[in-house]
Amino acid sequence: MSSSDRPEYVQQNVANWTKSNAEYTDAVAAESWAQDEITWGVWRTPESELQVLGDVTSLDIVDLGCGTGYFCAWLARRGARVV
Fold first, then answer.
1. What does the alpha-carbon distance between residue 60 and residue 71 come to, in Å, rounded to a whole number?
2. What pTM value is reported for the model?
3. pLDDT by residue (tens digit) across 59-71?
4. Measured between alpha carbons, how far is 40 from 20 in angstroms, rounded to an integer?
5. In angstroms, rounded to a whole number, what is the distance separating the alpha carbons of residues 52 and 7?
6. Angstrom distance (rounded) from CA 78 to CA 37
């Protein structure tokens, strides 16, 4: 199915998410993907301070495609198997 074959509501949804991404993540995308430390919430509190995650080595992690993927990148660098 080409993008022009999609129903109008799907095309509008894609347009809204594309606009939101440009406003919210594009400016810091490279920095966020490269960030070594996992941070939490709007205050970006470091995981090393909160210690809520625990050891993820060898855990299976499913990414449902509900965001930027930064978190899965951080988990993969800590030894999780991300799908």
1. 14
2. 0.64
3. 999 988 767 788 8
4. 20
5. 42
6. 10
